[in-house]
Amino acid sequence: MDHKNAKTIVITGPTASGKTSLSIALAKYLINEKKIPCVILNFDSLLFYKEISIATAKPTLEERENIPHGLIDIASIQDPLTAFDFIQMAKKEIEHWHHNGKLVLLVGGSAFYLRALFKGMYENQEPSNSTLSPQLNFEEVKNLQGIEVIIQYLEKNDPDIFNYIHQNDHYRLVRAAQYFHDNGMKLSIKRVEFDAQNPYDFSKNIVHFLHHHIHLDIPKEEHLRLIHKRTQDMLDKGIIDEILDLKNRGFDLGLRPLQSIGPKEVLDYLEGKIATPEECLEKINIKTRQYAKAQRTFFKKISPKLEYISVNGWPSQWDHILNDLLPFLEKK
Fold first, then answer.
1. Buried-exposed string 218-236: b where 16+ CB fall within 10 A, e elsewhere
2. Could you give all domains of the chain from N- to C-terminal order, each with its CATH number?
3. pLDDT in tens, 148-171
């Protein structure tokens, strides 16, 4: 396949918005109805890890049947992947499947990983004076440990940044922390106009394939219902037993993937910090709603500079999705 004409469908959206079900439905339709061979590649960071499946709402083996999936179960929680690791793996996977004539569906909610793939990692302008890991991913830190950790890092290293960024603006706080870590420079001194240098403007990117971006943005009340349903499904399918098994097998409970939403609350329950499974479920619901709200806010902020079709709940918008997608696939 001519890589200049290779195509990729990007599917994004907040957690529990239906990305997995849409990707599988699209792949089945394209394979069966349009005779277009497809592969689904994941960029949800927690789906990389083979030890946690229920806790991450990973697509089941039945759902993956007859549709090749990549970048799932590729690492152990004992050796967490960095954004740099992801970029290297994703590029190889995409090139491999394009070379073999497959349409790639790139699906996930980890915006930092998608940005890194399309725009590259932040380039160092000066040697970093940080003692932290050179590949520290602050978006992942925020998702796993909360925005408070990012705020504390900036209060120590670049407190003047709060003159320009509100503490509720999680997206820009993460970027400021990442900038200081990567460059050893205070972003407040440079007084960067963030919006003018928005790194999520995928219309100008470093990848060499055509892409069509579908973003799921469903009504708030419907989204809350789906979040609750997914959390209940996790409990019914055995998330507590899954995490208990890891604890009994001697895994380090402080590992980053186990500090993410879901595993962390279950660990708190197993350690007696949460009294009942029902309370554990509600804690997961609350944290997931907060995370989803931050994701929704982020996408709304960048939507003027981000080229995508916004879908208000995919089952009811199926025809709309296809009407926008098919001309892209027919493009030479």
1. beeeebbebbbebbeebbe
2. 3-118+206-330 (3.40.50.300), 121-197 (1.10.20.140)
3. 889 889 988 888 887 777 777 788
